[in-house]
Amino acid sequence: MGETKWTEDQQKAIYTRGCNLLVAAAAGSGKTAVLVERIIKIITNEDKPVDIDRLLVVTFTNAAAGEMRERIGEAIAKELDKNPESKLLQEQLTLLNKASITTIHSFCLEVIRNNFYNIELDPNFRIADATEAVLLKQETLQELFEESYERNEEVKDSSDEFLKLVECFGGKKDDTELSDIVLALFEFVMSGPWPEKWLKEASENFNNKEDISFEKTIWGKLIIENIGFELNGLYNMLKEALEISADTEGLAPYGETIKLDLIQVENLLEVLNGTWEQLYSSFNSLEFTTIKRCGKNADKIQQVRVKEIRDKVKDRLQGPKDKSNFKKEIFSLSPRDIINNQKELYPLMKRLCELVSEFYKKYSKKKRDRGLLDFNDLEHFCLDILSKEEDGIMFPSEVALKLREKYEEILIDEYQDSNQVQEELLGLVSRKFEAEPNLFMVGDVKQSIYRFRQAEPELFLEKYNNYSFKEGALNRKITLFKNFRSRDEVINGVNFIFENIMSKELGELDYTEAEALNLGASFKVKERNDITYGGDLELNIIETSSKTVEDIEEDIISTEEQEEEITNVALEARLVAERIKKLISGEDGKKFVVYDKMLEDYRPVEYRDIVILLRATASSAPIFMEELGSRDIPVYADTGTGYFDTIEIKTIMSLLHIIDNPMQDIPMLAVLRSPMFYFTSEELIDIRMESKDTYFYEALKKLSDSESNDLVSKVSQFLMQLSIWREQAIHLPIDELIWSIYSETGYYGYVAAMPGGLQRQANLKILFERGSQYEKTSFKGLFNFINFINRLRKSNGDMGSAKILGENENVVRIMSIHKSKGLEFPVVILSGTGKRFNLLDINRSILFHKKLGIGPNYVDPDRRIKYPSIMKIALKQKIKIENLSEEMRILYVALTRAKEKLIITGNVKSLESAAKKWLTSDSQKQYALLKGNCYMDWLCIALSKHVAGNTIREAVAESEIDVTKILDNNSKWKIVLHNKVQLMANISEKVNSEVEATEKTFEKLGRVAIAEDIVKFKEEIKGRLEWEYSFKAASILPAKISVTELKRLSNMELMDEEAGKLYELPSLNKKPRFLQETKGLSPSEKGTVMHSVMQHLDLKNVSTIEDIKAQIHLMIIKEFITKEQADTVKVNKIIDFFNSNIGLRLIGSDKIYREIPFHMEISSAEVYKDLKQSKAENIILQGIIDCFFEEENGLVLLDYKTDYVSEGDEDNIKGRYKIQLQYYTQALERMTGKKVKNKVIYLFSNGKTMEY
């Protein structure tokens, strides 16, 4: 291939110097190539060459940094081929390895390592594992809340704002929701440069001492701006209605009413510049007169159209209570009420911000004590090193000034995804405010899709709107809008869509001619009758609410073997599968081909050329994989989930569970049945028959003492191996233990022979690596590793299956739109466009926004009501628009991945009702877009005006769209409507043909013919469509519940149902127990330590304090507990227990069992009292029994409690744990078949015993 021919704009981006330069590079415009070429030209400049290690190149990911380094190396090598004697190029190639081509976090890490002494940081720090950081945060939160409760207990302050926070925002059952809010707010503020400053300002925004009117607040200004935008839209809608009335015979009476409405809206627009009092008064005094009657000669179609427009306006301004409108949302509270609410919320928001600040300090201390840093620390510590404060103003430090001298230019890739912290950091080391600025930024704001990671596209937009195109300007911008990726069919189609839907209001940028993609790629034209390429863009709409099956032939068969539940996602996946089949096999005698740059010619499309993009893959991708796989289409989906559910990981985790504690029947049986030991079902039954009422582990031990036979020998070998592993678990690091298991069992090799063997081996290797990472954390031991993995699972931290797929594997790929960013594919199928946007975040009880601060619900505990405060409404409006704008950009990313063919699919319930939303006039289009619920809505609002949009327009009997405004441009679209019943018929036709083939086979073999009587297809389909799950209520129940959770549910006090005005509020009548009186470890951690010690003590040697201390010392050596944990154990309390009556009874028993887990089926109606018994199903109750022992006439159930118990509070404790002991008793009696004669609680805090 020859030399790259750069366009004029690309050359400007490559050669422009001496200014801050923003390059707005659209999709497929070659921005990475331009960036690499710019670097090459800088380091090889004949007049003023710059060594590559004097450039700072910042990329978004480590992979991008590696690719950038590789491409620069290849470019230097290419130049060396031309000039092999160049010492300059040779030197640059040598310097490349130490060049600062890096992510922002790697840059920060380097700054910190070189300047750790400036912030008094231990130089031996390490970066915390992500899960380790999560566990540490949860530990810190628990400790913080316990201390907050304890402070309140000590001072007996009933007015403490912490308790009010818990009451108002803790949730109905406990304080979990508040702890989640604290953690979420912490994560949020840490994405900004000055978290403490933000927290203080955010809380002080509520401190309205001077009764400032709401319109002067940050929230009021935003709401008024939004009202103005919407009022202008409503005004334009009324003007349209007035024009129709004036132009249509018989509608003059309607026009008179519309004129009065226009006057009211005009008055509202004028009042926007007034006070909030005036706005409140104006909106609450609106009166809409009854619309006048029209004559019989009125045009009925236009009459309906005008009335519908007027009703929309009226409903929005002061509609019925069940609909969203200005009066209900914004002007239901008087100006005085708003000020009062603001003042009442101030102490709560101040306390919330203080909690976050306290959490920040405690969490920071825990990390420092352990020598840990997390990713937030990297940015903030680096910021501390690079900045200094003087008189409240931040200046660059000496370190920053030295870096300014070092770096001749700072180049930032993917600038649209930067945030304010990164902006501050790179601003401190750049010369952007000096005479010769040196900041180069490249990106595309239309592809900013990481707001959930706190990316701020506003940073890009602010420069884009203020920088100049003029040469010589210190702040200059260049645009690259030539697309070198896609065919003109794709480019024209994408432009048409976004010209009609993307705007400043929705997308944060007007998609004008200046933003539109321009063709830059060159595809050969090939005139052949046997091939086809490119072609129209496709939109496939599946209507899922088909009402009849009259057009379906009745001789189509459905059999039990093929019967399946047809979901909308499955239907869409099936449609996609059929479309892929046609692409691969060809249509109408023509093969579909794609252009191959390597071959410089066309070739038939292959599976690897096709990608299916989904907004999210977790739930839909498995369905697509199943449907494609059933049609023999090779497919791969990187879902990011499912790792822990793979058979190989479940098997090894089961083994680790029984190595830690063999008294667990389910994991024990899983291991015995696994290929590691090959116990048959018959053998397991024989083992159980030997000992019916014990744990399976004890049954194994009992059998191993029997007379020798093959089964006894097999069991003995297993127990010996298990004993070896249990011993190794005490001494070996976790990763070595795991690899020892792989090696000794041969399981790693075995899974290689299973289907998907390479994938399974890779999954096992990840578990080994996770064990290695765990060993580097501050947590130790197998028990903690299992908890570590369990916490990872419970926090939705599924690691995803290992990635083993090569780029050239011939499979269809399924991926999320986010993962597709930066990639390109010959054929893109965008599916799931009918799925509603996920906007649940805006319904949280407290919202956060970088500029608007905090927006909480207003809660009145006395009246037991809550509703969104006006502050929250402001944040909700802003966040919703930002989220919708992000969705708009995500759609842009999806459509611009396609090189040659773009196919879109999606479901709608009813095309007719949907089309009524889509067919809008220009004056209503923006309103309709903002009300859009999914990508399909946006696409069809645009395509309803396209020449190919007849399918949409014809769905409405009398179209509301002005046919004279159909847009006839150069984009080519094909819109196809698919009927759900037709798709199902296709499925059944396939089944029918398979049955016919089977019948013929049977006949040939002389077998019994298939019965002639078949189920009529019409009834089959009707039954499927009308089928409803009989146990909907049970479907929302958890599969399992812990005893602790069940106890908490049982102890909840029911609130008076009539007391809540809008929502029920929690009743805060219990304070949490405190596990220890001293500080240090968290109370829960102290309790865990005490239970661990009690579990592992040798009860034959607990006579003296010295005996117990010696055993605890041995536990430290065996890494059951750490030295720090051991120091918290009060040995005298343990001696008191063993000297008590219950302690002596325990020691005197021959059969003692400790820390015994159990699983037991119970009816869900026992847990959820409002669930009808007829709808109840069994769920699994799980728990761990501290201890039980056997005496002559029954079992004794013993539960230790490390709660702090105040004098006289024993009865409350006894009542609190009554339910827990009842279920423990039930579980124990089921497991053992023996009667529990005593249930005992021992309180370590005061040495008292309570019997039930």
Give unreliable regions as ranges.
547-566, 998-1018, 1052-1079
By CATH, the topology of the largest domain is Rossmann fold
**Rg:** 35 Å
Known CATH architecture of the largest domain: 3-Layer(aba) Sandwich
Question: What's the average pLDDT?
Answer: 85
Counting copies of identical and different chains, the oligomeric state is single chain
The fourth-level CATH homologous superfamily of the largest domain is P-loop containing nucleotide triphosphate hydrolases
Structural classification: alpha/beta
Helical residues, percent: 40-55%
Q: Which strand order does the major sheet show?
A: 18-19-17-20-24-14-25
Shape: globular
Distance between the termini: 87 Å
Reported for the largest beta sheet, the result is: 7 strands, parallel
How would you characterize the overall build of this protein?
It is a single chain. The protein has 49 helices and 31 strands. With 1252 residues, the chain is of the alpha/beta class. The protein folds into six domains: 8-125 and 378-480, Rossmann fold (3-Layer(aba) Sandwich); 127-191 and 344-370, Enzyme I, Chain A, domain 2; 214-332; 531-638 and 826-840 and 884-980, 3-Layer(aba) Sandwich (Rossmann fold); 643-794, PCRA, domain 4 (Orthogonal Bundle); 1041-1251, Alpha-Beta Complex (Lambda Exonuclease, Chain A), CATH 3.90.320.10. A seven-stranded parallel beta sheet has the order 18-19-17-20-24-14-25. Strand 11 (482-483), helix 20 and strand 12 form a beta-alpha-beta unit. Helix 10 runs antiparallel to helix 11. The chain is globular and about 100 Å long. The chain starts with 7 loop residues before the first helix and ends with a strand. The relative contact order is 0.09.
